[in-house]
């Protein structure tokens, strides 16, 4: 672990106000995504993580369908704030949909029954690492992002609208784009409450 890596972890923050200016070439962004999903650790080298990157029209389509669903479920007096947040996501460069391929997990459960209960947990841990890798890599290129969890409310619409295989379980959504407004200062719990050293 280098100081450079630690600086990137500090730079990675939740950015909600996004623009559609591309700080790097699209080809470089594609390479970044490919390297992250290729090199992310997975249990038993299962490689169960899946990513779908939505740009432009499809990005707006995702957040429009999310808005339609939430409008039916959110009290009218608080929906304005929700809509502002969703508009911020749809105005970015794109959104990454993260999935776990349950067929991979189920195959491992059958092959290694002793660990059957653990494989879904390990798959969740692995997709979390992939999300963090992508988020930090975006931060390195001055691209803002945040991690959203509108699933399972939007699962059915997402699968139908973007032709997603039925075995892919939606884990999270990561809208990304140029940074229009920097995140607020972050506060931290005392580290001695969170970290112990024992000899």
Give an overview of the whole structure.
With 199 residues, the chain is α+β, with helices and mostly antiparallel strands. Helix content is 48%, strand content 16%. Strands 1, 2, 3, 4 and 5 form a five-stranded antiparallel beta sheet that branches. α2 runs antiparallel to α6. The longest helix has 22 residues.
Name its key features.
199 residues; alpha+beta; 5-stranded antiparallel sheet; 7 helices; 16% strand
DSSP, total strands: 5
Gyration radius, rounded: 18 Å
N-to-C series of helices and strands? HEHEHHEHHEHE
Largest sheet: 5 strands, antiparallel
The percent of residues in helical segments reads 40-55%
Sequence stretches where pLDDT stays below 50 over 5 or more residues? none
Secondary-structure-derived class: alpha+beta
The shape, in one word, is globular
Beta-strand fraction estimate? 15-25%
Distance between the termini: 22 Å
Oligomer: single chain
The number of helical segments is 7
What is the averaged pLDDT score? 95
């Amino acid at each position: 672990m280098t100081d450079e890596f630690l600086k990137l972890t500090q730079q990675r923050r939740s950015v909600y106000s996004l623009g559609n200016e591309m700080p790097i070439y699209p080809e470089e962004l594609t390479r970044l995504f490919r390297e992250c999903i290729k090199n992310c650790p997975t249990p038993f080298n299962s490689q169960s993580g899946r990513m779908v990157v939505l740009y432009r029209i499809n990005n707006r389509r995702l957040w429009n369908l999310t808005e339609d669903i939430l409008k039916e479920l959110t009290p009218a007096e608080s929906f304005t704030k929700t809509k502002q947040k969703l508009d911020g996501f749809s105005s970015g460069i794109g959104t990454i949909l993260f999935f776990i391929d349950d067929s991979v997990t189920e195959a491992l459960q059958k092959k290694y029954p002793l660990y059957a209960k653990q494989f879904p947990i390990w798959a969740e841990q692995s997709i979390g690492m992939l999300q963090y890798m992508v988020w930090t890599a975006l931060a390195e290129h001055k691209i803002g992002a945040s991690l959203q969890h509108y699933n399972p409310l939007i699962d059915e619409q997402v699968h139908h609208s973007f032709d997603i295989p039925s075995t892919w379980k939606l884990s999270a959504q990561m809208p990304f784009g140029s940074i229009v407004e920097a995140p607020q200062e972050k506060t931290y719990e005392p580290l001695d409450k969170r970290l112990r050293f024992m000899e």
